[in-house]
Amino acid sequence: MRILKLLGILAGATALLLTPARAANEIVVGFATAASGFMQAYDKPAQDAALIRIDEINKAGGLLGKKIKAVFADTKTDQAEGAKAGLAVLDQGADLVIVSCDYDFGAPAALQAQAAGKVSFFLCAESIKAGIPGVGPFSFSASVLAAVQGATMAEWAYNKKEARNFYRLLDSWTVYNKGICDGFDWMLPRLKDAKLAGSDTFKNDDASIASQITRIKSLPKEPDAIMLCTMMPGAVSAIKQIRAAGIKSMILNGSGVDGSYWLNAVPDLSNFYVPVQGSVYGDDPNPKVNEFNKKYKDVTGGDPSSQYVYPGYVLIDVWAKAVERSKTTEAAGVVAELEKMNNEATLFGPRTFTQGIHHQNQGRYLIVDTEAGKPKVIDQWTISEKIPVDYLVSK
Amino acid sequence: MTAVLQILFDALSLGSIYALGALGIAAIFGVMRLVNFAHGDFIAFCVFAMLWPSIDAAAIVFAGRLPFYLLIPLLLSVGAALSMLSEVIVFRRFRNANPATMMIASFALGFVIRHLLLMLYSSRPKSITLWPNLGLPVEFFGAHIPMLQVVTIIITLAVLAVLVLFLKHTRYGLEMRAAADNFTMARMLGVRANGVILLAFAISGMLAAAIGLILATNSGTADIGMGANVMLIAFIATVIGGLGSVPGAVAAGFLIGAASVVFQATRPHDARVFRDAFVYGAVIVVLLARPQGLFAPKSAKQRV
Amino acid sequence: MSKPPSVIRQTVVTPIVLIAVLLAMAALTYAFGSRAFNRTAIEMFINIMVVVGLYAFVGNSGLLSFGHISFMCLGAYMTAWLAIPPVMKSITLKGLPVWLLHTQLPMWVATPISGVFAALFALIVGRIIMRLSGIAASIATFGLLGVVNNVYSNWDSVTGGQGSIVGIPPTMNVWIGWLGAAVAIVTAYLYSISRSGLALRATRDEAIAASASGVDIVRERLIAFVVSAFIIGLAGALYAHFLSIVNPGSFYLRTTFVSLSMLVVGGMYSLSGAVSGVVVMSVLIELFRNLEKGVSVGGLPIGLPNGVQEIAIGIITIIILIYLPTGLTRNREFSWRGWPLQRRLASPVQTALKEMN
Description:
The structure holds three protein chains of three kinds. By secondary structure, chain A is an alpha/beta fold. In chain A, 39% of the residues lie in helices and 18% in strands.
């Protein structure tokens, strides 16, 4: 037992890392994100984009005359470890704690930041909880709510594609999926003459969705559009099975299926629509986005894999602006400036924060259409009214 | 009529995958009384063997480009090799350990393999295109079933038939059954223990590769968690089917697939998310009614 | 002729030694550890509670249970329902009964209630499942885990579904963690030296003879099931206060297998095994995590590549089990040679006739 005690002390000693002294002319930004485990594939791209923006700011003279320094702590895709990662970056003097792309894995670190009175920002979480309801008044998210994606697709398909019969297929695996369908549910009654032809659920890792497909095929008329509320990896299998069964309806999705890396699995996919904040395919209407894609490739060695790279850039962008305007990194000042932002222009769409919501419940989305396996931006859409916060929180 | 036939086909669709998984687990369980919790990770490993290790989003398929008459034997041998390797390195040391130790060892092995794959390939699913034509449906009496599922069912039944014939009519099969019945006695009678066990592991590994191929073709992606769901159901099916009874495991796999499909098709919308709860509940009920498994002989029932 | 010393006097060294060592660890952590390290220690203490609870059932009955983490889930969520401020509950958990929405209880009250809730649930479910033996029982407990996980992940109005619910006051510290572990150890110890525990161990070693001697197997198993559920329910409650956020995914397969691994690595049939398994594994995990974080040598970080920690732990588990298949403590209990009249708790008997199951 004594050996075990000694081991315990040894482990404790190595845990007391030497904390580097914080230079007075530096602003510290702490990344409490996943560098291992399954969230790593989702956190790293957005993190790289954030680092690109930090680099740009430093080259342009810094923030409030000081250089931004990034520090990191690995959450290892574990909630308990995430809390420790948050503490670790706070101990290194972080004024901003950036946390994982997913609410469940980012919240522990964000809660630590909130308790320490610092601003926390979710890299790309799209749940309403990633902000005031789920963390506290100093917490924000850099992306757009999942519900907006569902509502956007429904309204766009209704207005631009004359879709009237919708089928709702929900993958009950995650809160993100449910969020997309919640937005869809909210929008549908607002569209005159639009009908819900039917509704079904499946689970992401189901080996076969044969019975769900049977239900669709047994409808008297093929639905105009299928609202598919799902994400990787099960999305590919579902889409494959739907098309293989001969169902030709429009498939409307959330942003989670953005990216061309999986299109090989469903050859000649057509009539397939995805909302994105910016295009990774080189055809964004804003030429600066295409420039950013090139810069991203230079820095990281590969093209952006999906639109989830972009919120990382937006995060640093809006936070830095708020710091400049409030002339301080103190949470109260920064939060006040952020909450004043109304349709603040960023490279990837306008951003609005208010005292009631630190997330986007309305957003400009580009619509990407995939025809014969090739994705292309064809349109853009902003939903006509904001989704009410009460509705979102009560779901 | 068509609706019932369709449900039947859907059930066969899903059940065939579970049945093939159950075969892989039952093969080892029958001989060693070991539940191989690493089986799901063997499945994932075989699928990733087709890709070149890289953490980029796009997959770099190298072996996956081979024509099917090369790809299938290659993957089967990869599966068999991995399985036999794990027997020699890990499971051989646990021959006489108690079942809990063996289970935890197999879980640890699976854990290592999964995290190795995670480090090499990252968690983002990679797309693989294999025989996309197999996704097209075949029609029977107005009900349709994807060609791939028909192929899966045929493969499952064929493998089952071959396995049963092998076990009953060949010398190796006889040795395997003897070893399953009473290992020590079989050794005393001249059965080469190591050979029989290696054979069982090789068969299980090949089955893992087969399921991996089928899952990859069906879903078009290679994902680290691929085999996990199938493995869980396969484990349950093996026990419900009757310990050590290979046909029983297959039948139980089909049964669970059928139950899942029937629940999905018949429950009202709000209850459908609880489908898994119903299936697990049904499993408990079956176990209470027949604890030794549905297809085991009555003599296998425990005395206390 | 003097009376032979009671069982307690002979075996009480074990829990005393265990609790004392844990106390020393807690004290050292509190005095010298960073905030993050304190959190690691609390996590270890909660794991000790879980694994000791598992031991109370698995070690005494010989049945491997995959379902016990569902009790942790029940305990954690009950604490969430009781401890989250009513303002937050009313928005997200509308399906809860009104009286529950308006209560907010402190940790000292909510935790035992959560434990009792888990125990009651175990009582009801156990009456059904405990009739099974061997691997059928293990699969049935697996089914239990699946059912609880599925229900908690999808009953959105009551449990918040898959999304985490926040708001549990973060009132945990190392001392409360130690207290929880101590309570778990004492409870498991008292159960195992009780008449019921002894009877259950008899069924573990030789079921037919025990049954023939009049032991009601189902009843004894049920008692063990309920006691272990209580301990694990307490662990779940403290876990909720520790993370201040609960999510059904944390109470499913990964946690189940990690706790079972810690139990088997330590020694499935002994209380000391349960505790040492957790301590050793926790120390190793922390060591490897720090090796991954690396050390800054002249500005250059040197460390293991990320992701190596899990692989290393898996390999070490296998190696430990190869050389010590009965676990680190080899199924014996800790004792102190100086203690008069000391006797070890009985280790399992290797019988000539082994039931093949």
